[in-house]
Design goal:
The complex is a heterohexamer, with three copies of chain A (112 residues) and three copies of chain B (405 residues). Chain A is α+β, with helices and mostly antiparallel strands and 112 residues long. Helix content of chain A is 20%, strand content 41%. Chain B has a single domain, classed as Orthogonal Bundle (Ammonium transporter fold), CATH 1.10.3430.10. In chain B, helix 2 runs parallel beside helix 4, helix 4 packs antiparallel against helix 14 and helix 8 (228-256) packs parallel to helix 10. The termini of chain B are far apart. The chains are: A alpha+beta (112), B mainly alpha (405). Bound molecules: adenosine-5'-diphosphate (3 copies). One adenosine-5'-diphosphate sits between chains A (7, 35-39, 56, 58, 86-90) and F (27-29, 62-64, 101, 103, 112).
Chain lengths: 112, 405, 405, 405, 112, 112
């Protein structure tokens, strides 16, 4: 099993979630995050004091998937989150040793 | 001059000023968090820009002298420019309180009217274009219409329509302009496709509370005295707001199954809007009827923007244009002579209807032309990137919340 | 009629109306974020429902005519229903300002009283049941008690107790009802087990600020004139609030080591509650004493709910019932004839104590029966799932905050 | 006594009281979320502590009798301590409204003045030290300066300077004290190195709206009557605020490219500060000039703290000290005799300048000594760990927000 | 070493933390999250516009544990977070290569 | 490739980010978190009711890095986030199987 993590632009969340649903994903978890990367930050000014702020708001989603579904999940996120401009974000794939569904105690693939 | 009347009008001036921050929060709570400051600023700036315009020429054009086409007085003159000759007496307006208080009171109305429009163009209009729009609109639309209705102009004199506290001058005027501006500006990115949720309904309810509070100055002060007519306008204002808010949440409960806090706030404002032109002309039961009509019809009117597909983002048309029309017309029927000297009748209804058509048409047409002109010259709309990222950072270089440390 | 008195009473009406939104935020800040809108709505809806009830029958039952049992006037009549015959004069109430202003002023008190109760039932009561409770309670409890004390009823006439601005009618009345309602409703899931923290104390402090501000209309307006008695009530109100707030944070510093912002706000409200019945009867030093007593005793009374194990969620009993009793009794001792015509004495203390017992018992009993009746017929309490997930989504279909975009 | 004047002054008292919560939110929005309650409390506590001090001795020292050095009256006496002999008449102050209203009105000024200072010491000063500072400063600085200017003291009598609503007594006084306190206290950890962002600008804008609203009582009430002079002060207040806010955002647009919401709010306050001493002495065009000067100069003055390296965290010096000086001086030139009986002249400018120097020097010197004394005895500053973790938890044991459930 | 991630209902956080403490866990980190899964979402209505919202508030906790303690951590979370209704959440176990305590520079098991 | 996770004190975020930038890191993601650990919590009091709160505000940062850069990242975080007092936080290193840059579709090391 894999944990697919993606950092995406906040306004893409709905679209990505709907596409993943379509692709057969039955669950995901999203978290509000601040990202720093190639995308240039911005300047904020408060009473004349200028601050360079490199962090931009991102959403971090993570999806637990079965190995076989992982490529689909990755390509779905890629396609829907892409706008072509810097800051579209990244996807990372991590190995998962076990998954447990709290409600039933199911383990592994069945628990996803 | 009467110190009691002066005291009440001074208080009313302050109350009406507070309505603009109140409105800012009413609107500000409904936008996404990336656009809060942009929204607040579009309201607050009216307190700055309109005051300056008003002192320089606005007050003069609305309330000083009269320039006529035939018998029809269509605008004031420049006699009062800069308020240089305002003085300390009450001779200009012949009220029981000083002229400077009357000018302040009218100023507060001139401020909130364009601020109302801001709800329609939320989350996408450029700040600079908005400032230009407000300044010019105040001169080209607000001052003339105020003159027609309250400054001795032809709507009062020839048409014979009445408007207690601004159904025509404020709400229909702002609502028609909102519609025009939205048609030129176009919808927000994602309109009807994305979930665009209010970022903080508590702020919206706070705004609604401040608006309700301030409205007592708006309507109560429009009796121009601290007397039984002010008392009646105060009471009808309270009743209409309460009934409309209650009817609105009932309508929601029947339609969607759940009464909402945003619905209560929206209904209250709809009721306050509808009673505005009528507050001093009807009694408690009349205000009950107007409130009920406003709650039902404005709730229904929310769907207009989806039917006709214009992104009036915070429903200025459904609440202010529709609400203002409801009040302006119903007072033609429900007015009782004992309260404000106007008796409801089919004729009066006709006069009211004519005045509505005139104000609506004029405001819509001039606002549309103004919007087009600004669009061509300076551009009305923020860039797509700025809209996506939010107006707060893009236009104002600020963030609304930094809650993490 | 006097325009100065009218101006002050109009202002006071507006100030008291603002107290209900103020209260909504005072309470709303203290609940968890999943229940904010539910809390705000339980207050705001009172502005809708009570206004309607008041116009239809409430005002009439409280202030029109009298229906007696023997010599004891226990309720008004239906003579003023629908406010149809309210008119524009000041003949009904014989004040120096119009009757419609008096009815509006009294309406604002009728609104905030049930709203106060809402703090006790936070985070678990069904909205529909609350609406029914408020409407019926307003008729069955508020109007009678208001009649007894202020409408020519037996508490004023036979018992001889006084209540300047609503110790009995508003605070003890609401506090006793809160206790009854909580006893029927039961505690929140997790009461005493889970950490239930205020979600936004800034909102609570904002509410406290608005309440303090509005209270000047509440107490100052209850002099029914803009004169030296109003001025005295205003000053005693300020002093009691200030002293109680300061004493409360001192008590916290001694007990827990730290003065809290919530404590300051709570103490201020406790002081305002306690001075309410007394504001026009005592002088500056009397108000200082009442404020100090309120700060200390209400702070101590917070532990009652843990000792007796009832989940009065936002401490309506400790602040309003206890605070109201403190003021109602202490005025019996501290009143000085020069201020409001009542001299402190053991007899007066006895009269005050009797009036407290009557109001408390009546309100508690009728509220308990009403709560039971509603529980059996429509159910008082939200389902466990709805309570867990929060009332905002479950009952209103809205979220209070969506801060992420 | 005049009921209209009384009504307006009662209203003004309430409006000025509301300014302290307004200020609390204006400041509270600008600090980081770990210090919000600490900031709010530093303002709210003034409503508690200063009221007590005022009742006990403050009012008496400022406004009762006079203690002279030679011909110069430098302080009142203890004749009015405890307000025991305040009574119900208007004999003490000879106003057209009761003495108790005058004492309340002056009390509200005494409250907000030390509260203004709190912006300078944000996010690091101990609460206990702040309470001690406020209580002592109120006696040692506020009461004397109020006496000199408004209580028959030597600034009014011998120097011949005027101060309509508190340029000297409130703003210069608070601004100079802020500077002194900051110099003793030192900068926040991370000043000039870390990004210290406002945690919630909507709260700041709310505060600014409430301040603007309340300021009408501050300046309008300072005419001590509901008349044409009050009307003029009201109008000049509105104009100065509007112009200064607009000029400030224009200056931002030219300097940084973007007009900010915080800038609008700051500019408005700067304009309100600057017009305070002048509101009743100048007309609309004079107020326009004062507003423009305040917007430009205070905006520029923001950089002083970086140039001179003192962490006046929320810019009390740039807004209140500089703004107050602008108004106090410009009125010396722009006053027109028709408005308030003072004619602008080089002599008057000289008198004004002398009064500024006196108030500034006295307040700075005594505040500095007081700060030093408190620093040595009880310590002014929170520990480094407490400052890092935030004052809310460390000093008050509370969290401002718990938004997650 | 393992990183145990769990998505649970917000009102269970206190209970789970206390149980883990009891079970010998010396630290954890919690984050507010939005979850989408089998648990049906809800409808929100703003001025007549109805939105289907699939995301429900969850808390995401993560615990770094020594391999030997991992089973205990998992079963403790399972038992305390379980209510038996849909939406109880999931647990995932990820391999961890190294842990460092910033204060001391300790590494591996000692750093936990 | 690795995913380096660190829990640090919020006021250290700017410093750590700047140091990582200096050290050649081109991106990271930060999330507001609540941590429980050896650092003692605090007492909160609301109207006389005292609550023991063990959770303290932390920031959780995560950095995707190439294997060769990982040690530098770890030591940079260690040095800049350390104050020497309890609560400085922890760093964890997890294996990453793949990284994808959404904008370009690049994979692996190039995508970081
Ligand atoms: N090495 C990294 N580790 C963790 N998160 C990263 C890393 N690089 C980028 N990110 C996340 O991805 C977002 C987009 O990255 P950025 O470099 O701006 O654009 P792009 O991926 O299009 O080149 C960042 O805001 C950040 O949240
Ligand atoms: N595949 C997944 N990947 C990531 N998070 C998931 C996944 N499935 C479920 N979750 C998380 O677990 C929560 C509960 O899942 P849900 O399917 O609603 O209930 P249950 O686990 O009881 O069947 C979700 O809200 C989400 O936060
Ligand atoms: N086992 C763990 N699993 C996950 N997070 C942890 C763990 N232990 C500590 N943390 C995180 O690290 C932070 C600091 O840990 P703490 O034990 O307080 O201090 P230190 O690391 O200096 O000994 C905690 O607040 C928490 O966010």
């Amino acid at each position: 099993m894999k944990l697919v993590i993606a950092y995406i632009a906040p306004f893409k969340l709905d679209e990505v979630r709907d596409a993943l649903k379509e692709a057969g994903v039955t669950g995901l978890t999203a978290i509000a995050a601040q990202g720093f990367g190639r995308q240039s930050g911005h300047t904020e000014t408060y009473r004349g004091a200028e601050y360079e702020v490199d962090m931009v708001p991102k959403v971090r989603i993570e999806v637990l998937v079965d190995d076989t579904l992982a490529p689909t999940v990755i390509s779905t996120i890629e396609t829907t989150a892409r706008t072509g401009s810097i800051g579209d974000g990244k996807i990372a794939v991590l190995p998962v040793e076990d998954v447990i569904r709290i409600r039933t105690g199911e383990r592994g693939r069945d628990a996803i | 001059m009467d110190s009691g009347d002066t005291a009440w009008l001074l208080t009313s001036c302050a109350l009406v000023l507070l309505m603009t921050p109140g409105l800012a929060f009413f609107y500000g709570g409904m936008v996404r968090s990336k656009n809060v400051l942009g929204m607040l600023m579009k309201n607050y700036i009216a307190m700055g820009v309109v005051t300056i315009v008003w002192v320089l020429v606005g007050a003069s054009l609305a309330f000083s002298g009269s320039t006529s086409i035939g018998d029809y007085s269509v605008i004031g003159d420049f006699g009062l420019w800069g308020l240089k000759d305002l003085g300390l007496s009450n001779e200009l307006f012949g009220m029981s309180y000083p002229d400077n208080v009357h000018i302040s009171f009218q100023l507060m109305f001139a401020i909130i009217t364009p601020a109302l429009i801001a709800g329609a163009i939320a989350e996408r209009m450029k700040f600079t274009a908005w400032v230009a729009f407000v300044a010019l609109w105040s001169i080209l639309v607000y001052s003339p219409v105020a003159h027609w209705v309250w400054g001795g102009g032809f709507i009062a004199e020839q048409v014979g329509a009445v408007d207690f506290a601004g159904g025509l001058v404020v709400h229909i005027n702002a609502g028609a302009a909102a519609l025009a501006l939205v048609m030129v500006l176009g919808p927000r990115l994602g309109f009807r496709r994305e979930v665009i949720r209010p970022h903080s309904l508590p702020l919206t309810l706070l705004g609604a509370g401040l608006l309700w509070f301030g409205w007592f100055g708006f309507n109560g002060g429009s009796a121009f005295a601290a007397d039984e007519f002010a008392g009646n306008a105060f009471l009808t204002t309270q009743i209409a707001a309460a009934v409309a808010a209650t009817v609105w949440v009932l309508a929601e409960a029947f339609t969607h199954g759940k009464p909402t806090a945003l619905g209560f706030a929206s209904g209250a404002i709809a009721g306050l809007v509808a009673i505005t032109p009528a507050a001093g002309f009807v009694g408690p039961l009349g205000s009950l009827a107007i409130g009920a009509a406003a709650g039902l019809i404005c709730f229904w009117a929310l769907r207009l923007k989806f039917m006709l597909n214009f992104d009036d983002s915070l429903d200025v048309v459904a609440v202010h244009l529709v609400g203002g029309i409801i009040g302006a017309l119903l007072l033609g029927l429900l007015a009782e002579e004992a309260y404000g000297g106007v008796a409801g009748s089919v004729e009066q209804l006709g006069r009211q209807a004519l005045s509505v058509v005139i104000a609506l048409t004029y405001s819509f047409a001039v606002s549309w032309l103004l919007a087009k002109a600004l669009d061509v010259t300076m551009g009305l709309r923020a860039s797509e990137v700025d809209e996506r990222g939010g107006l707060d950072l893009a236009l104002h270089g600020e963030q609304s919340y930094a809650l993490s440390e």
